[in-house]
Amino acid sequence: MHGILAHMPIDADAADSALLGPTAGVATAQPDRFTGSTTDTQEHDHHHLIVELGKLRPTLLRGLRLLLETVVIPTMLLYACTLTVGSFWGLIAVLAWCAFTVGVRFIARARVPGTLLLAVGMIVGRTTISLAFSSVYVYLFQPIIGSLFMAALFLGSAAIGRPVTMRLAQDFVALPNRLFHDKRVRRMFTEVALIWGASRLIDASLGYSMLQFGGVDAGLLSRGTFSALLTVTAVAACAAWGWNKLRRMPGVTFRMA
């Protein structure tokens, strides 16, 4: 009976209790809040903790789609319209794209992700301000300020020993609470915060340099291509670094579903 219970899936909170108690606990697996997949945590032989992560491919595909819909396509629309019919209509095209992106999902009665609504809301705000000033420069300068703010947030949280990445990770993977109190795990999240913060500094520097010395056209090119590529690279670097650190932790095994 003990062998059967030790290999049955338990949720993250139950895993903490199982590590402290003499008998392995059993509970129903909880769905991952972000991916919709199932994240199971098991205790093996009372000492070895096994954490089964949800499938990453659907999450990565949704992230890539979000990047295309909220960064690449709006910027390319603005760039094409600026070269042909003028910047005013380029900004109008960005607003139309935002309405189309959300509207299609509503018409199809599909779920609209909160991250998409947040990103679209930010784009609409940026575009409205740019229309008020009749300036594409204002449209491109706002993300630079945003990148500087993100850099300060991530680097600052790492400096005070309370990395914001530790809180954000809970939206992607349900880990046992016990792990968040482990010094090695906290160090890993601090290092990931430093990587992401540094990438935002590079993004702000690149965007400002291209906009300042290359003009609006160069700024649009930077925002639509270089910034997007930098974001993808930074996400991959953070994920690889975190995974490499976690899988080397003794007493804990992480398995992909």
Strand fraction: 5-15%
What separation lies between the terminal Cα atoms? 26 Å
**Number of beta strands:** 4
Query: Portion of residues in helices?
Result: over 70%
Radius of gyration: 22 Å
* Tally of DSSP helical segments: 9
One letter per element, helices H and strands E, the order comes to HHEEEHHHHHHHE
Structural class: alpha+beta
Spatial shape = globular
Q: Major β-sheet, in short?
A: 4 strands, mixed
The residue ranges in which pLDDT falls below 50 over 5 or more consecutive positions are 1-46
Average pLDDT figure:
77
* Strand order across the largest sheet: 1-2-3-4
Label this structure with key terms.
257 residues; alpha+beta; 4 strands
Description:
It contains 9 helices and 4 strands. Among the domains are: 2-56 and 250-256, no CATH class; 59-134. It has a 4-stranded mixed beta sheet. The chain is globular, with a radius of gyration of 22 Å. It has helices at residues 2-6, 12-20, 57-84, 87-107, 114-133, 136-159, 164-169, 177-180, 183-247, and strands at residues 30-31, 38-44, 48-53, 252-256. With 257 residues, it is an alpha+beta fold. A hairpin with a 3-residue loop joins strand 2 (38-44) and strand 3 (48-53). Helix 4 (87-107) runs antiparallel to helix 5 (114-133).
Helices and strands in order, then pairings?
Blueprint: H1 2-6, H2 12-20, E1 30-31, E2 38-44, E3 48-53, H3 57-84, H4 87-107, H5 114-133, H6 136-159, H7 164-169, H8 177-180, H9 183-247, E4 252-256
Parallel strand pairs: 3-4
Antiparallel strand pairs: 1-2, 2-3
